[in-house]
Amino acid sequence: MKKLFTLAIIFIFVAATGVIKAQQVNNSGFETWDNLGAATEEPTDWNSFKTGTGSLISFTSQQIKRSTVVRPGSAGTYSCVIWSKMAPIGGILANGNFTTGQVNANSVTPTDPTNFNATVITDPAFSEALTGHPDSLVVWVKFKPAGAGADSARVNAFIHDSYNMKDPADVAAAAHLVGVAVENFPSTNGQWSRLSIPFAYPGPAVTPAFILISFTTNKTPGNGTAADSLYVDDLSLIYNSGGIPTVNKPQKYNVYTDANDLIIQASFQKPVKSEICIYNINGQLIYKNQVNSALVSEHVTLNSMNKGMYIVTITNEAGDMFSQKITIN
What is the pTM of this model? Predict the structure, then answer.
């Protein structure tokens, strides 16, 4: 449970722009722990099954501990480790999971939408205030699958307004999303790996109030192998000197569908390196391609996409991001 209610603030001094206030996540180095040595052990300001809620939460067990295995060059002493294990009911695999929000466990079907992590904006124990617009999330991870062909691990961050955001997100969450950063990553082969994950700012919400961050041993609920483990250390939010990321349109930018394809078109004054990404409503990257052209015309077959809302972004080599939401019916 949370004990540190004061938002961590650092100040970055930039010669060209003066002082930028850069908010960070509480206990982002995982140095402080509650109930150390007990089955309810958790990193302060972060939560797992033992502080969760829902009809099945009493059947959950410890799947998080403090670890002395830290990333290379860390100034800290500890990291966080989570692991998957077979649940005592239902014969299902319970993925390792922890979050700045609260874990909700209500169904023995792992993919049931009543199983989710959520910000609880009225409770400081299960919410993380954030009013900034970070450019990226950086974190060190070590993912060790217990079996061959294991599902990828996942980190997901939703920046949102004053709403009890869920991960996975439901349809109602779409109106409250400000920004998203997500990464699914495979085994790191027993080594620490530094992830740098950019935030996309699709809106439509524009006023950040909270951030919901979740880590899990497996991107797909119920997938993987018992004893898959994920170590996490030294998380930070990175801000550029320009403050809020640029979200301007190029000379032409259009996203639409025809009978067969999702079509993404953009034009620039001169050839530019751009990365095209498509995210689903849960922030999962489902398509990525890089182009180097003044004229962009990308066609993605609709057969590869489920019905629902998607976020299409184009990020050019100057760091400018253009985004648009579209619904596939």
Answer: 0.76
pLDDT for 48 beyond 90: yes
Tell me the CATH number of domain 252-328, given options 1.10.540.10, 3.40.50.2000, 2.60.40.10, 3.40.720.10: 2.60.40.10
- The answer to whether residues 252 and 316 touch, using CB atoms and an 8 Å cutoff, is no
Higher pLDDT, 322 or 169: 169
43 φ/ψ angles, rounded to the nearest 5 degrees: -65, 135
Q: Any idea of the CA torsion for 118, 40, 188, 150, to the nearest 10 degrees?
A: -70
Peptide bond into 208 cis (omega under 30): no
146: left (phi over 0), alpha (psi -120 to 50) or beta: alpha
Positive or negative: CA dihedral 187, 313, 294, 242 = negative
d(CA 141, CA 148): 19
DSSP 200: B
Asked if residues 158 and 205 have their Cβ atoms less than 8 Å apart, the reply is no
Q: What is the pLDDT of residue 72?
A: 93
Q: State yes or no: cis peptide before 250, omega within 30 of 0.
A: no
